[in-house]
Amino acid sequence: MTSARITTPPTAGLPLQWRDLWPWGDAQLDRALAAWLGVPGVLLECSGTSALMVALRTLQQLQPTRGEVIVPAYTCPLVAMAVAQCGLQIRLCDLAQDSLDMDADALRGLLSAQTLAVLPTHLAGRVADVALARHCAQAVGAYVIEDAAQALGARVNGHSVGLQGDVGLFSMAVGKGLTTYEGGVLVARDAAMLAALRATHQATVRVSRWWECRRSAELLGYAALFRPATMDAVYGAPLRKSLARADWIEAAGDDFDAQIPQHTLGAWRRRVGVRALARLAAHWQAAEQQALRRSAQLAALPGIEVVGDAAAQAQGIWPVIALRMPNQAMRDALMQSHWASGWGLSLPFVHVLPDYAQYAPLLGAARHDAAWQARDWAQRLVAVSNSAWLSDAQFADLLQALQQFTQRA
Ligand SMILES: *Cc1c(COP(=O)(O)O)cnc(C)c1O
């Protein structure tokens, strides 16, 4: 096998080990995560999306007259699905010119007495400026939900992200770091808010044997096949198929089922999570070292910008290294040539929310909210996998290819 045939996964998810799958042991993943995050308690959900729905329903009960939720125009389409599912009206906030965070002026322009919540979002492990969003939200009495789906392990001022707003959520989906195949975590700075979230969970989330069986089988399959020897069969081959049809939405994994399952997270998957969590800090530490070394090499290429944290005093995590290319034509040409090269290139999301035909109907009037800068980000971003499986030799090939693309410009 030549190095070119090894397929790198698109993110540095924490690989599972066989002994993680043992059927017995400590199932208190909530306690383990609370200790790991340095908080008194957390609430477990079956996905980040389900966690967001629990958060939104809780806030709806606290402020029933407010019906709008402000999210970045460039974020996971599941966020729009969750907001719509709760019967709330989404509003799209444009991004800043110089960071992947919401633009503060655009945010102030959207906030009103109608605003239930704002979702500053830590995309790609980079830390958003939640203090600023909170300051803006407080002026109109709106809540702040930190979407830290992609940032379990990121810190700001020495504390976990997710605790500067009123509610924080993390995802344990495949590829986002720690995984129970699908899973979600809710945190809250304030004990009364955590209790309110727990009450909503108890009133709305049920056990589902069928979903637990399905997710357990998927987690087993993932543990068995998320390995260098089988990565090409389970990730590379389907990716090439999507790309052969020019279906970038499927290639990027942006094609979500319309139904959002809500159920509890079963004991066996919690046990797997407890055992894998013991390795997460070391995993992110090693990933950070690799990312800092490789970021410096990437940043040295003319025209290529490595995306950094928006917040000061931040220590993000590095599932990927996000790059901004000089223009869309160059980004698209790079992806056409090398998305399937096995280097783990991908797009965080293909479009801003209103540009997906299948999700635009969820937006209602918000499909007309200004998103110029967010669209520019969507068109120029590339995520380079920070998986340890991307060897130095493969990374050198990637650097050379990037250099050729920028020189051609
Ligand atoms: C993945 C993701 C979600 C949803 O989390 P799931 O666990 O996949 O349901 C929400 N927000 C962002 C920014 C995400 O990347």
Number of E strands: 14
Are there runs of 5+ residues with pLDDT below 50, and where? none
Largest sheet: 7 strands, mixed
The global form is globular
Please identify the structural class as seen in this structure. Answer: alpha/beta
Helix content: 40-55%
CATH class descriptor of the domain at 26-209: Alpha Beta
Q: Helical region count?
A: 14
Overall pLDDT score: 96
The strand order across the widest sheet is 1-9-8-5-4-2-3
CATH architecture of the domain at 26-209: 3-Layer(aba) Sandwich
Topology (SSEs and partners):
Blueprint: H1 29-37, E1 43-45, H2 48-62, E2 68-72, H3 77-85, E3 89-93, H4 104-110, E4 115-118, H5 130-138, E5 143-147, E6 155-156, E7 159-160, E8 167-171, E9 184-187, H6 191-204, H7 209-225, H8 228-244, H9 248-251, H10 267-277, H11 280-299, E10 305-306, E11 314-315, E12 320-324, H12 328-338, E13 345-346, H13 372-380, E14 381-385, H14 392-408
Parallel strand pairs: 2-3, 2-4, 4-5, 5-8
Antiparallel strand pairs: 1-9, 6-7, 6-11, 8-9, 10-12, 12-14, 13-14
Helix pairs in contact: 1-10, 2-3, 2-6
Pyridoxal-5'-phosphate (PLP) binds at residues 47-49, 75-76, 78-79, 121, 147, 149-150, 171, 173, 182, 184.
List key phrases describing it:
alpha/beta, binds pyridoxal-5'-phosphate, single chain, 409 residues, 41% helix, Aspartate Aminotransferase, domain 2
Summarize the structure.
By secondary structure, this protein is α/β, with parallel strands linked by helices. It has helices at 29-37, 48-62, 77-85, 104-110, 130-138, 191-204, 209-225, 228-244, 248-251, 267-277, 280-299, 328-338, 372-380, 392-408, and strands spanning 43-45, 68-72, 89-93, 115-118, 143-147, 155-156, 159-160, 167-171, 184-187, 305-306, 314-315, 320-324, 345-346, 381-385. The strands form three sheets. A seven-stranded mixed beta sheet has the order 1-9-8-5-4-2-3, with helices on both faces. It has a four-stranded antiparallel beta sheet with strand order 10-12-14-13. Strands 7-6-11 form a three-stranded antiparallel beta sheet, with no helix packed on it.
